[in-house]
Amino acid sequence: MRKVCIIGCFADTLDLLNGQTVKTKIVYKELEKSLGCDEVMKIDTYGGMKTLVKTPIIVLNALKNAENIIILPAENGLRIIAPLLIGFNSVFKRNIYYDVIGGWLPEFVKKRKWLGIFLKKINSIFVETFSMKEQLESQGYNNIDVIPNCKELDILDAKTIKYTGTKPYRLCTFSRVTKEKGIEDAVQAVCEINSMHNDVFAELDVYGQIEDNQKEWFEKLQTLAPQYIRYKGMVPFSQSTKVLKEYDALLFPTYYEGEGFAGTIIDAFAAGLPVIASDWKYNSEIIKSGMTGVIFKTHSISELKAAIMSIDSDIKKWNLMRQNCVSEAKRYLPANAMKKLIDIVNG
Predict the structure, then answer these.
(1) Pairwise CA distance, residues 287 & 75, whole Å
(2) Euclidean distance between CA atoms 200 and 189, whole angstroms
(3) Residue 150 per-residue DSSP state
(4) Structural contact between residues 100 and 260, judged by C-beta atoms closer than 8 angstroms
(5) Helix runs in the chain, H state only
(6) What three-state secondary structure class fits 125?
(7) What pLDDT digit, counting tens, does each position of 304-325 carry?
(8) What is the largest CA-CA distance in the chain?
(9) Contact present, 99 and 72 (Cβ < 8 Å)
(10) Backbone φ and ψ of 271, nearest 5°
(11) What is the pTM assigned to this prediction?
(12) What is the percent of the chain with per-residue pLDDT over 90, rounded to a whole number?
């Protein structure tokens, strides 16, 4: 009998960089490190419909072989896994925990009250922000706790921060490349700022995996973009700090409906990089405006431009924020962020 079984999207044969896969692997790795390899098993749910039809077998396998079950499903998987787990667990009497990825759950269960019958029987549901906790508690859940998103990153030594100096300021985005992540807003803001100056005020590099259904949109955007807007591809997980420390700010003008505690914010903090982010979902809870970045009104190109230009108007303040980001990043190391979950499953 293992101490814990993790059911989630591992997709070990693929190089997926989406938030669900990354976080699932982090949780597995940290539990393995803390409890030992022999105490942790994993079941991969990647595979779409082919995997969903096998869910009863997956659930029974987990319940038979582990004392504690941790699930990390997305929307489709949750609707199937949760009822099956709770149903079969009436026989097995295991501890079941749900580690939520993203910020979609409160709205999702509000529209599917039947699902709450099962979710309220889970030992603990761990959400990424206190705002999510409050929203779920207002719906009658009393099993909600908070574990922030986390990443095992090389946090920059404060002595090696590459401080912001002169124009052109180097900006980047570092997320999945989709329209909903605000990439087009970032491009528009930088282009409009540069058109106001005789020289190039800022350059923008776009990093990340391009979603298959958005390739046509992004190719068109690239075609129309000037030379100071560049697509730089994907960065290996282990190289993010090394890449991001060279920039002056990370732009995150997201309006993605499923946004939770975005991992790109942790990437930026670890590299001593202030984040200029939209006031969307939970960003203002994570980014302290004026301390670790700037929050602007969602979809407001004028406010986004003002935030970018504020780098130049007070470089001293901006460099102080770089130091704050490095300090803040330590909160989101897996060993710190996941201590609560590790203590629970370790008994």
Answers:
(1) 26
(2) 13
(3) -
(4) yes
(5) 19-35, 49-52, 55-65, 75-92, 105-110, 113-119, 130-137, 183-195, 215-224, 240-244, 263-270, 283-286, 301-313, 315-329, 334-337, 339-345
(6) strand
(7) 999 999 999 999 999 999 999 9
(8) 73
(9) yes
(10) -95, 10
(11) 0.86
(12) 86
A 10 A CB-CB count for 119 gives 22
- Measured in degrees and rounded to the nearest 5, phi and psi for residue 18 equal -70, 160
- Specify the residue for token string 């004026």: 290
Ranges of residues in the chain whose predicted pLDDT is under 70: 13-17
The Cβ of residue 336 has, within 10 Å, a number of other Cβ atoms equal to 12
- Whether 331 and 148 have beta carbons less than 8 Å apart is answered as yes
Tokens of 115: 């699902």
Cβ-contact 115, 79 below 8 angstroms: yes
The token duo for 175 is: 């997320």
Domains of the chain are: 2-147 (3.40.50.11930), 158-331 (3.40.50.2000)
Query: What is residue 166's three-state secondary structure?
Result: coil
pLDDT of residue 219: 96
Q: Give me the long-range contacts of 291-294 (CB less than 8 A, separation at least 24).
A: 291/321, 291/324, 292/321, 292/324, 292/325, 292/328, 293/249, 293/250, 293/268, 293/321, 293/325
Tokens 């079984």, residue located: 5
